[in-house]
Amino acid sequence: MHPDKLDRAKLMSLVEKYGYSDIATALRERGGLPDPEQAYLTGNVENIDDFSACQITRKEDWVDLYAKPYYFGCEADDRMNATAFGRTNPFGSKLNAIFSSDIGHFDVIDMRHPLPEAYELVEDGHITADNFRDFTFENAVRLWGTQNPRFFEGTRVAKEAAAILSAAQTPTLAAAE
Question: CB atoms < 10 A from the CB of 84, how many?
Fold first, then answer.
């Protein structure tokens, strides 16, 4: 992917043979580079590995760098939501999927319908009841509550949210080892 290793002559011949004439003209004007302004976006020609800053040393680092810190809003009735909790995820990791209802969508006539539709994943055996609780409540509590521990104060779920946040701060035996 190093821009200097691009076979510009080969690219030009392919564009002339299969591409449009305006693209070939533009390519010629740029000295054969598709977009010279973006050729070195990393800012470091010597190290063009965009992921080097992650300091990944083993495959399992993916879990700490991607699965744990990110949260994903998911459409309520999308069966793909089950993959966030799937046993086939790398290293048995779970993604922080968050119920993001379809209430604003044109096809939701009654705002009471998205949640029961999402629960069909449990009824059909794709996720567990605990996964559903994570999906509809606990992941959202961790997202908002870790950024602002007082986020849920004064709400109907304040006590339960505080318990979840407290448990999230308590180191587990595995983490302490």
Answer: 21
